[in-house]
């Protein structure tokens, strides 16, 4: 993917996946290994892209299609839940924590309560990165953009 960016291939969005996070047993060691793999891959990718003008225009979004439950199950893992994190990285990203830190004591049937509407994150990315109208792609959503970019 870095070579495509550096070669100015006109593709606007690329997708890469890292499987294995659907852990329902012995989660701690598995997630530690997977997050280390994710960290090393993202660090190498962004370090390489930081050396080129094309690479400096790249925004990376890391998300999961599901969150995890708070309480461990009987197999020392967790089951599918809600309210997962989204990471946004890149040269132009302002950084910071957006939304409220979810509480571990006020749960919704055992799940974390989302503190931000995902459409606000995706709407900001659609408008700021792709120059698209978020309402067109998010069923009319017209929420306020986040200050994700410098």
TrEMBL record:
InterPro entries per UniProt: DUF1501
Instruction: Please name the Pfam families in this protein's record.
Output: DUF1501
Superkingdom classification of source: Bacteria
In Swiss-Prot or TrEMBL terms, this protein is called DUF1501 domain-containing protein
Supply the source organism's classification. Bacteria, Bacillati, Actinomycetota, Actinomycetes, Micromonosporales
């Amino acid at each position: 993917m870095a070579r495509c960016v550096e070669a100015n291939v006109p593709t606007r969005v690329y997708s890469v996946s890292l499987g294995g996070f659907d852990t329902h047993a012995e989660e701690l060691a598995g997630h530690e290994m997977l997050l280390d793999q994710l960290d090393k891959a993202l660090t190498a990718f962004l370090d390489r892209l930081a050396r080129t003008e094309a690479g400096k225009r790249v925004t990376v979004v890391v998300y999961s299609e599901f969150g995890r439950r708070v309480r461990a199950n009987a197999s020392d893992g967790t089951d599918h839940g809600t309210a997962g994190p989204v990471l946004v990285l890149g040269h132009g990203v302002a950084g910071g924590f957006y939304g409220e830190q979810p509480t571990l004591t006020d749960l919704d049937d055992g799940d974390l309560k989302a503190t931000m509407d995902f459409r606000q994150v995706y709407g900001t990315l659609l408008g700021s990165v792709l120059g698209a109208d978020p309402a067109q792609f998010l069923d009319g959503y017209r929420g306020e953009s986040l200050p994700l970019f410098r």
